[in-house]
Structure formats: structure tokens, C-alpha cells
Amino acid sequence: MKIYFFSFLFLLFSFTNASAQGGECEKWLNEGLQAEANGDYLSALEIWVNSRSDLNEPCPSISFEYIRLTTEQKLKDYYPMAHSMYLWALTTENLAAHHEAIKTEIDRLAPIMPPEMVKNLQKLMERNDPALLERIILFWDDSRLTSAPSYNERLLEHWERISNVREHFNKDSQLPYGTDDRGSFYVRFGEPDHKAQIDLTIKPEDINNILSMSEVREFNERFPRFTTEAGSPFNYNPIIEVWRYNKNEDFISEFVLLFNRNGDGSYRYLRTVDDLIKNSSFSVREIINGRSNGLTPGVVMQAILYDKLKFTANVFADRASSLNFEINSIRREQEQVNITRAGLPLKMQSQTQAVAEMGNAPLKTSTYLNQIPEIPVEFFQYRMIDEEEKPVFTTFIESRPMEALILDVAANQNVMTEDEIYDDNLTVFSANDPQIIQNYSLNHTIELRNERREMVSHAKHTPVLAADFENTDRISQSVFKIPYAEDDLNVSVYAELKNHHDGTKPFFETSFNNNLRGLGRKHLSQKDPLILSPGKISASDLIVGYQKSETPDAEALFPFVVSNRGEIPLGDPLVIHFELYQLKLNEIGHSQFEIEYALTENKIFNLFKQTVGDIRNTVFFEHDNERFSDIIEIQTVDLPAGSYNFEMRFRDLLTDQTVQRKTRLHFISQKSDRLTEQVQD
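Now predict its structure.
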């Protein structure tokens, strides 16, 4: 009895405490809502922020109202706090007390989450399992568009979209955003690149454009009720809205959405325009000129509808052309209607294609990402072994920020200089004009995540930004030493150009931080590491370059210009860095080995060029360690431009074990300008 008694007391205390907490939460919430209703938005935000110091635990309702109000009013200075308030909500330990607020947030997330993730969150919600909050935090962390931002731009863009659909689309309380079908698609995909409202009413002149005069007369006789008006068997609501998204980082090809207007003015999602045509329209046995499989009302409707839509998207133009061809084929008494190009089969094919395209469409997109000038960024990894005999990746990030820099200088140069400048030609500035360049910085960041998308490791470096307005291919480079952590890691690299001048503005207003003026991103899988086999010689990947320095920087990892693409300027000696591991030591503690290298012309790429002699050499080494690291320099002054294969063969003379490494090189007539700064992390 005592056990039940104490359990009852505990439950009673928990309920009482939750009720008290809920009452305080509601009090602060309503106080802020009242301030908002009075038009005092900043006071409302201040009230909700101050509630954090008074409440014993987070209040998700307050957090969600805070981020709603900041995005509705585009109070961008408050975006960092909105992000902080959102994360505060997701640290509550009492899900039962905030069940409705969390459940509603899951509903808001559902259109941009994989269905299995939504189901998992819903199951966790049923159990009041706090793990669901961790999943939401991880989901948004994985959605970041830049490295370690002061706030999550994608999260704020998501809420901006919610605010936009609530303001502009018809109301429907049954859907997560309180709008018609368009709301969920807008929140998922953002503002389309092209939007059009089309009236698909079929008029007599539309039929005249498809059929000949004799065919029109016969068609009208056989189908006197062929109209899209009410009461007709071919009736449909003729007004549709077409959204087209152009090919970009999110969409691998043109993507089209259709919405059909209802009688109350709201819109419903339409998989394909063929859905407006009843299946019975294709099964009518009446045909023109007595031919089977001919021009049923459904086929004529298809031809007219696609013709009306042909200027809104390529897919409609292609189908309009195809249908016109089929109709002409019938008219010329050729083959029957192609089973995949007209009629009910075309409708079924269109529906199947629409379902497949929707299934392949991205769940998380960013309209703003395409409004930030792109910085081309590349990523290179070389497998090595560190001093503790553990795998490590020497990792290079290379970016070309000059085009983004030039665009931003063009928009803000008068603000960043003391004197007014009216010349739009940017070459009026010197390559390193301190008055301009001092406002900018470039960051290179690398992040590693596991299969669960959890952060495993990250590193950041700020290379020197030396501007050259006449050379947009100028390369900035950073190099990191990244220890191998685990298999199947995903690597993300970022290049971010920032303007720190307070008076400047980006070209487009976005959810990004105002100082971001250029962005490069790349996501890929980490290479397999170099794994040592006991007692066997091994070698690192080859790192090639040119311009070996006679007085190298003590902090530089490599005393030469590394060419990750294998491009070597004609006349410059070829420089190769290599490392050997697990060499056998003799009785006096020395290793003995030889290196044979060969530089041979790649005949596949140089079919029409004069064959040149191979460069081959063998070098003997004796060293007092089982590890060996060195740089060799090869004179290539007599080589013509072209593609070459370079191979190194290492042989341990004490064990006769060998290992080989090879790479492809391109000797070019002009060297690429680059700025290289190396950092070890």
C-alpha cells in the first residue's frame, strides 16, 4: 500500500507542477499575443524572451509564436534570437504538458520530411519520448546551408514560407498551414520561377484549330454535347494555376505543379492536366470517318489542353507537338493512334510520370540559395599515415571567389570608398586596393558527418583573399590534416565570402546573414582510408605540383604550389611529395630501398602529337627510420604540352616488397594563378 500511496503522491505532484508550469507559460504567451494585437511587435518579442528567465522549463508555444512573428514581419535582426528560441523549445523534458504544440510542429514539418521520419516522430510523440526533440534538432542541423551560422537560415526560410502562404493562399483549417493544397507545396518548394493562371475552357475555335472543317462538322454531329460547361459529360473546372521550377541545384530538371480552382476559389493539387478529362471521354466508340482508335472526345481534349499550356513548360510543348503529330497521322490514313502518345494510355503515362517526379522531387529546397552568388569550390583528399600509424587524410579545399567579389563590389563600391565613383569598370581599382578588400573575408570549412547525420568533426580556415579583378579564376586554397574517424562518413565543404562593411547590402534580400556575399558548397562521401598491413611496405598517395621554394614557410605543409588537378606549367620542374611506411630496418637500424619513376606520354589524349621520349629514373635511398617522406624534383623543360602518366614504384631492398602509385598529369602552356595558404588542423 505504501508503494501505491507514494506513487500517487508523485503523480499528483507531477500533475500539479505541470499545471502550474502550463499556467505560467500561457500567461506569458497571452501577454505577448496581446502586445502583438496592439501592433507592438517588438514588445511582444521582448515579453517572450523575458519569459525564459521566469519559467522553470521551456515553453514551446512561446518559442513557435516568437519565430512566427519575426518571420511574418521580416524582423531580420531578431532571426538569431528566433533560432535560439526555437532550440529552447526543443529542450523541454515535459512533452505531455506541451503535447499539442509539439504535435502541431510535427505537422508543420511533415511536408519537408521523409514519410518514414514523420511516422517515427509521431510514434515517439505517442510515448512522450524526448528523443523526438533530438531528431528535430538534428534534422534542422543537417539542413544548414552555411557552416556554423549564427542562426539556421533554412529554418527561418521555412517559417518565412509558412507566413507567406498564410497571407496569400485560401484558408483551410484541415491542412498544416491553414491553407489550400498550394500551401504545403509552397513550403516544400518555395516560390516558383514561373507562375501562370490559365483558362482551359474549350471553345468552338479551339476545335477548329485541331480538326479540319469536315471533321469539325462530323465531330459536332456525333458529339453535340461536347462542351466543358456544367451538365456536359465532359465538364470540368477550367481554371488552373501552373507553377514551374527551373533546373537548379535542387531540381535536376524542369519541375511543374498544377492546381485546379474549386468553386469556392481555393485550389486543389492536380497531378496532370489529363486528370481533367474523364476516362469515359476516351471510351466513346464514335469515331470520325469510320476509323477505329480515332479521334475520341478525350483525344481532342488532350490536344486542346496541351496546346493551351505549351508556353508554360517544355513538357506541355512536347506533348502538344506529339499529339498534333498523332492527329495528322490519322488524317493521312496512316497508323492508328500511338498507344503511348494519345488517349487513355497517355493519361495513364502522365499520371505515372507525375507520381515518379513528385517522389524524386527534393524535400528540402531553398529559394534563397539560388540568389547568393555561387563560389566554385572543389575538394581533394590524399591518403596518408600519421606518426601514430593511424590513417589520415591530407585534404585541400580550393575556391574561386572572384566573380562573387566583383558582383558585390559593383553593387557597393560607392559605399566602401570615401570618394564617389561613377565608373562601372572595376579595373579602376588595383588588385589589392586596401580600401575595398579590407572589408572582405573568405572562409573555408570542412564538416564530417556519420550515417545518422551527426557531426563527427569539423575545421575552418580563413585564407588570404588577394583580389584580382582581371582574373576570375584566381584560386584560394586551404589544406587540412583530417584524422580518419570511421567508415561511411559524409563530407561537406564550404567556401563563404563575407563583406563586413556595415553600410553595404547583398543584391537580394534573403534569410541569410547580411554579410554573406558568396557561397560555395559541395557534399560527397569520404574516401576509403589507407590501411597498413602488418609487415608490408606501403606508400601515401602522390601529391604533385611545381615551383618548389628554396626558403619554405616553416608552417606550410608543402614547400611548393600543389596542383590538385595535375596541371603543370611548361618549363617548371615537376615536384612530387610521397611518403613510405613500414620499411624494413637492418641490423644497424637503417632501411634500404629504391624508387623507380616513369613519366610517359598518354597516347590516348595525344593521338595527333609528336611522340616524345619517356623520362625514367631509379634512385637508391638509405634511411635511419621505417618511415620516409621526401620531395623529388624532375626537370621537364623539353616536354611538349599534353597529357602524361606518372608512376612511382617503391621497392624495399631488404624484403623485396614493392608498392606502386600513379597519377595523371597535364603540362599546360600557361600556369594558373592561385593563392595558396596552408593550415594544419
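The CA atoms of residues 392 and 566 lie 21 Å apart.
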